[in-house]
Amino acid sequence: MRQTTASTCCYCGVGCGVLIEHDGERVLDVTGDPSHPANHGKLCSKGSTLHLTGDLDARALYPELRLGKGLARARTSWDSALDHAANMFAKTIAEYGPDSVAFYISGQLLTEDYYAFNKLARALVGTNNIDSNSRLCMSSAVVGYKRSLGADAPPCSYEDIEQSDCVLIVGSNMAYAHPVLYRRLEEAKAKRPEMRIIVVDPRRTDTAELADQHLAILPGTDVALFHGILHLLLREGWIDRDFIEAHTDGFEDLKRLVRDYSPALVADLCGISVAELQDCARTIGSAPSFLSLWCMGVNQSTAGSAKNSALINLHLATGQIGKPGAGPFSLTGQPNAMGGRETGSLSNLLPGHREAGNAEHRAEVADYWGVPALPDTAGLSAIELFEAVRSCKIKALWIACTNPAQSMPDQERVHEALAGCPFVVVQEAFSTTETCHYADLLLPAASWGEKEGTVTNSERRVSHVRPAIAAPGEARPDWSITCDFARRLEKLIRPGEPSLFDFTNPAALFEEYKLLTQGRDLDLSGLSHVVLDRLGPQQWPFPAAARQGTPRLYEDGVFPTDNGRARFLAEQYQAPQEKREARFPLTLNTGRLRDHWHGMSRTGTAARLFGHVEEALLSMNGDDMRRRRLIDGQLVKVRSRRGELLLPVHKDDSLRPGQAFLPMHWGDRFLNGLGVNSLTLPAFDPISKQPELKHAGVEVEKVELPWQFFALVEGSVQKRFEALRPLFEGFAYASFSLTGRERPALVIRAACNEPPSRTQLAKLEQLLGLDEGPVLVYDDPRRSVGKRVRIEHGRIVALSLSGETAARDWLKQLWHDGKADQALRPWLLAPLSTPPGGNVRSAKTLCNCMNVSQDAICSGIERGLDLNGLKRELGCGTSCGSCVPEIKRLLLKQPAVA
Ligand SMILES: Nc1nc2c(c(=O)[nH]1)N[C@H]1C(S)=C(S)[C@@H](COP(=O)(O)OP(=O)(O)OC[C@H]3O[C@@H](n4cnc5c(=O)[nH]c(N)nc54)[C@H](O)[C@@H]3O)O[C@H]1N2
Ligand SMILES: Nc1nc2c(c(=O)[nH]1)N[C@H]1C(S)=C(S)[C@@H](COP(=O)(O)OP(=O)(O)OC[C@H]3O[C@@H](n4cnc5c(=O)[nH]c(N)nc54)[C@H](O)[C@@H]3O)O[C@H]1N2
Ligand code: SF4
Ligand SMILES: [Mo]
């Protein structure tokens, strides 16, 4: 029977409500929940395809245990898996102390999961070694809010974005990363064109399409920019002296500091003109309301804390906080990174926005938990933690819901750490990740649509996440795995004591947790799973007596600091860690694509999500390519001080000369060579400890790899991927992706210096299903060239080109069109590899919802269609709208002929 369950999207921090249609066993469809205040029924290209993701062949289904390094893992029972884990942890703690173990968790866990992990680490094990991937994501924003305003609380609501007169978007590509919020901004701007939007980003992103002003500052120079703006605000008298006087401290010091940030100096540091800077300051200074949005371009920096505070300074100086359409509003990346901050899931925090370094806070929490004390040794942050694993100080590591062997900087060291760690537990929903490879114990976790709990989105709104279907195989929800393990560990290290983990459901965890927030800035004590069901998603604070949530903080100008006053921070601009030098003259920036999520464990199971960008490409400015004699699509080697990566280059003039860009999504599984983060650096901000993921010095050079390979194969793509992947280990270049919609196919591109052995090729052909049956074969052993095409029922179902791949795109198009062309046979039997003429269409799908290719849109534009005409005739941009900024850009580039 078809049923509908209301829940939330498991991707970004917008926190959209979804309606999951299912039959109790399988998810059949997903639509936006019209009653959810975050999205009012809208979804983006990722949310609306959730039901197409999560291929069971890629899921972790059973606990698996490795009994010795070098051996393969074998399936085991939950009982023996968790007993083994408890024994290993107890033994390690007994022998080396509680700080010899660590937990590395994730902003994608639910609040109840986090709470269980925190209690486990701090109360039971007695270590503060519990950190999360939010360290790579939001920790600079946490520091920013706490230092400037006194508590880690984004003060605004999504409505403020719509109501604002001036929105400053810094280091956020929200068109890709927070699409539904971007849609809301687009609509607001369409209704009130006088609303000003400024985008500060070194790249001209899709987000910049909406901007009245795009400031393409040099990477890392944000602090100089903010000080330069304040300098001008002061000079022109565009500040709010009454607010500064009544509600802040520290303005005199800041005034002295920004005196030195003259427009000429700032323009020079930021690589913009004085006029651009003045325009920006004027827009901000004269706006009745001013709101700023920021994300990883600000946080992921060795100056991340300073950037956050310098931006908040602008709001305090202009009194633009605590009123409609105003305030500093960080966009949270992960769906529940906020919940992580609330429950204390960074090593330096404790539940309820407390500090692990504060003795009073420790005593409060210890009291509440009924344990003598909480540990007072500082815990390790992500980068330090993996360094401690590498140097063998940490001997048992528990990783849940994150994939550090893809997402941490300086991958070579991370892989080394994981390989050498005596005991690694990985609690994961998908068995395919790079980190799973190192798991001595793999624990299958329930995932989206299968688990219950709560999440907090970017605007402090708590939603009830509800399960629609049972988890597959023996997968279990995270809170239950964690509590079950904790109860077994308790028996070994706290025998005879009453259990700290007597929870029978997530609601029980929430009930215990919420009282730790009572009376604090984030007070959740009036909420419960039942209240959320009755009232719908609510914004904190929501104290016990409350009837509704709190949309806006600090309306009274009172801040949660010691004296109730907000603080200006006066810190100098510091250049990024890796200075330009002859050996590494380019700055490598990394970030998100529209349709993929992080390491692609989930989005990488839905072929259509590769339609927008099919493979890992290095983007570079045309001038930089010319100087290096590189042509579009050519294979290049990118080198940094830490590693190198081979992939094709792509001309992209949205980048200024001197900069390069790589999507963050490709790790070692989808691209040979430890992925994007083989290049990035582990240097971090001194206060937030957030690493500088957006700024690595690199050089790019041409590589010639004469022997090339291409294959495409339909059916059981995840199984084939797993089977084929190891065969490409030795290749200098190998990239994997999916293509198609109704008939997904695996696509492989690879290249190396010498042809692989005949046996290796035979093995490849066998796994591709090209060794027998209705396969057309051509071989030219002299040139090491081979072609194989398998045709069933008049259509291509698998093919490979080895040695030489000139016909790649033509064949792929034939496959797409579902036919075996007349020209196929003569080409196949001829020694020449070039395809028999004809135009090969661009494979890029711009509109994923309606399946409209870039080619179709371009020819529509040629026929004279404008945006509305394209929408009407082709349907593109009429569903989620994520492709609209790109269509607008095509329209600008290729003006319609009358
Ligand atoms: N499609 C998609 N959406 C996602 C995610 C995903 O994986 N895929 N992940 C989610 C998560 S966890 C996060 S944290 C967010 C991230 O969301 P965003 O931060 O918006 O995304 P990024 O692409 O990482 O980086 C944003 C921009 O910062 C710019 N930038 C780089 N260096 C600088 C600098 O020095 N100064 C300034 N001003 N800008 C700079 C980059 O050019 C880039 O356009 O996205 C969330 N949403
Ligand atoms: N170069 C570069 N690197 C970056 C960034 C960047 O901009 N540039 N951004 C950084 C940022 S902001 C972030 S947030 C990180 C993200 O980095 P990761 O945390 O490594 O990203 P994910 O791939 O989302 O990892 C989440 C994992 O949890 C699994 N999972 C999904 N649902 C569940 C569940 O319910 N339970 C359990 N136990 N597991 C589940 C997924 O299969 C996936 O493997 O990457 C960081 N790394
Ligand atoms: S904007 Fe997209 S990815 Fe983010 S929560 Fe909404 S549907 Fe999910
Ligand atoms: Mo993130």
TrEMBL record:
Gene3D superfamilies named among the record's database cross-references: 2.40.40.20, 3.40.50.740, ADC-like domains, BFD-like [2Fe-2S]-binding domain, Dimethylsulfoxide Reductase, domain 2
Statement: the UniProt record of this protein carries the keyword Lyase: no
Domain of life: Bacteria
Residue ranges constituting the 4Fe-4S Mo/W bis-MGD-type domain according to the UniProt record: 2-58
Cofactor(s) the record lists: [4Fe-4S] cluster; Mo-bis(molybdopterin guanine dinucleotide)
GO cellular component, one term: oxidoreductase complex
InterPro entries: Asp_de-COase-like_dom_sf, BFD-like_2Fe2S-bd_dom, BFD-like_2Fe2S-bd_dom_sf, CT_Nitrate-R-NapA-like, MoPterin_dinucl-bd_dom, Mopterin_OxRdtase, Mopterin_OxRdtase_4Fe-4S_dom, Mopterin_OxRdtase_prok_CS
Claim: Iron is one of the keywords in the record: yes
SUPFAM superfamilies associated with the record: ADC-like (SSF50692), Formate dehydrogenase/DMSO reductase, domains 1-3 (SSF53706)
GO terms for MF: 4 iron, 4 sulfur cluster binding; metal ion binding; molybdopterin cofactor binding; oxidoreductase activity
GO biological process: cellular respiration; nitrate assimilation
SMART domains membership: Molybdop_Fe4S4
Keywords per UniProt: 4Fe-4S, Iron, Iron-sulfur, Metal-binding, Molybdenum, Nitrate assimilation, Oxidoreductase
Family note: Belongs to the prokaryotic molybdopterin-containing oxidoreductase family. NasA/NapA/NarB subfamily.
Protein name in UniProt: Assimilatory nitrate reductase (NADH) alpha subunit apoprotein
Organism: Stutzerimonas xanthomarina DSM 18231
Classification lineage: Bacteria, Pseudomonadati, Pseudomonadota, Gammaproteobacteria, Pseudomonadales
